[in-house]
């Protein structure tokens, strides 16, 4: 299942436009906050798909039955670019567990690259709902590697929701082929058609990690 939320006319498009805008990007705090807002909006949409159970709530004047999320949620992110997006999701799923994966591109002399994973922090995923956040879904290779790494450490989740601000058509197709089709949902802000020779999305936004936290060496 693929949801491209930017196709609808909602306030989400304002935040996507601002994270794309090269002039607004100069304000890193605003960039991070807009990524966080996108995570909040996507979390609200994801919440509509979860399981609920009735819970009795006592008010100062009486009692009322409320439907409360019953799924156990784990929010996983790819360091470092995914941190603001993860925070946006946690603002809504504030009792969720968290997982972290450090994955990065190691460039080769021939212009290609390899995805390296150096750090994993992950608890039990069995029977839980995994929300895997990464601002950019470019080739899809890092998404698959991160997913496989999380499953190897924590077990098979009940369902996986992938949250990305911008994706490429190639990345979406790759994810469809390599992630479990019956238990994966993609939540995307926008899908762009082009990838450069270095696998950057065009028009995209640039390097999300650098825009959030400054350029790396």
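Q: What amino acid sequence fits the structure above?
A:
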């Amino acid at each position: 299942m693929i949801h491209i939320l930017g196709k609808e006319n909602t306030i989400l498009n304002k935040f996507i436009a601002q994270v794309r805008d090269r002039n607004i990007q100069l304000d890193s705090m605003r960039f991070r906050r807009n990524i966080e807002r996108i995570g909040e909006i996507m979390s609200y949409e994801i919440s509509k798909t979860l399981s609920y159970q009735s819970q009795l709530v006592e008010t100062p004047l009486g009692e009322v039955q409320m439907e409360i999320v019953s799924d156990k949620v784990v929010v996983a992110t790819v360091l470092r670019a995914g941190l603001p997006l993860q925070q946006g999701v946690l603002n809504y799923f504030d009792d969720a567990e968290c997982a972290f994966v450090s994955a990065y591109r190691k460039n080769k002399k021939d212009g290609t690259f390899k995805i390296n994973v150096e750090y994993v922090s992950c608890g039990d995923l069995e029977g839980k709902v995994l929300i895997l956040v990464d601002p950019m879904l470019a080739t899809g290779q890092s998404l698959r590697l991160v997913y496989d790494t999380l499953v190897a450490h924590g077990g098979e989740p009940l369902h996986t929701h992938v949250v990305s601000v911008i994706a490429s058509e190639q990345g979406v197709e790759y994810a469809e082929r390599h992630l479990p089709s019956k238990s994966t949902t993609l939540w995307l802000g926008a899908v762009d058609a082009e990838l450069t020779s270095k696998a950057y999305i065009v028009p995209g936004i640039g390097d999300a990690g650098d825009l959030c936290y400054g350029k790396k060496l």
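Q: And what stands out in the fold?
A: The chain has a mean pLDDT of 93.
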